[in-house]
Amino acid sequence: MWTAWRQHILKTGTTWMFVAITLTHILCARISEVLCLKASDFRWSARSVTIAALKRQPQVNKTLMTAILPTLRALKKKGKTVKRKRSCGVRGDVVFKDTWVWPTGQQYLFPDRTGTSHVKKDIVCHAIKKLRESFPVHGSEKIRSHSGRHSMINMLKKHNVPADVGMSFARISHKRTYDLYGQLNQLQAGQALNANKGLKRSLQDMYS
């Protein structure tokens, strides 16, 4: 569902929103943490990013996983541009480019209209509320501003990443809280069980 949601944002939302939501997933970060990011927070040679202090938690340097570096570097180099149409009355539909570019220095990745601060969380939450009205969601699945972080925690659990590692990456202090995040659905649980060779051998030995 996460991939479909990102594509829905790219198609019907804005490019900066698409980038911001993507970063919540690949950095396993809250949307409020992502909106505070500046270009200078990314240290490419060290392959890390500084996440600001939040919710009584101190500032932290997160490792940029090797698998997501190409995506980040492509955004830094090319930004994101999508051609869109806007209805302009008697002029009809006007095609324009919706472009987001990676900033430099102390500039925010997602500046507000004044350019002196960053976009606020409430704006993102309002945009998500509007976008999900046209996004098909099945069963009990829900899309919220922190769904990207939840989805990443879900992936960590699916691939058997140790809980203490996942908690550190997600900036979660309590095991009970971590257990409530990113819970696997039955399909993912079944896939993980089928991929466990030791379990498979034990069951085959038992019932052969």
Please give a structural write-up:
The chain has 208 residues and is of the alpha+beta class. It has a single domain, classed as Orthogonal Bundle (hpI Integrase, Chain A). The chain is built from 10 helices and 5 strands. The chain has helices at 2-12, 15-26, 31-35, 69-78, 121-131, 147-158, 163-170, 175-180, 186-195, 197-207, and strands spanning 42-43, 48-51, 60-63, 80-87, 93-100. Strands 1-2-3 form a 3-stranded antiparallel beta sheet, with no helix packed on it. Strands 4-5 form a two-stranded antiparallel sheet. The two termini are 38 Å apart. The mean pLDDT is 87. This is Tyr recombinase domain-containing protein. Keywords: DNA recombination. One of its GO terms (biological process) is DNA integration. It holds the Pfam family Phage_integrase.
Could you provide a short overview of the structure?
This is Tyr recombinase domain-containing protein. This protein is of the alpha+beta class and 208 residues long. The protein has helices spanning 2-12, 15-26, 31-35, 69-78, 121-131, 147-158, 163-170, 175-180, 186-195, 197-207, and strands spanning 42-43, 48-51, 60-63, 80-87, 93-100.
Level-2 CATH architecture? Orthogonal Bundle
Shape field: globular
What structural class do the secondary elements suggest? Answer: alpha+beta
What is the number of helical segments per DSSP (H or I, 4+ residues)?
A: 10
Q: Tell how many strands the DSSP assignment holds.
A: 5
Give the C-alpha Rg.
20 Å
Which homologous superfamily in CATH is the superfamily?
Intergrase catalytic core
Main sheet record: 3 strands, antiparallel
Our estimate of the beta-strand percent is 5-15%
- Which stretches are low in confidence, meaning pLDDT under 50 for 5 or more residues running? none
Q: H/E element string?
A: HHHEEEHEEHHHHHH
Number of domains: 1
Please write the CATH class name.
Mainly Alpha
Spatial strand arrangement across the major sheet? 1-2-3
Gap between N and C termini: 38 Å
What proportion of the residues is helical, as a percent range? 40-55%
Please name the CATH topology: hpI Integrase, Chain A
Mean pLDDT: 87
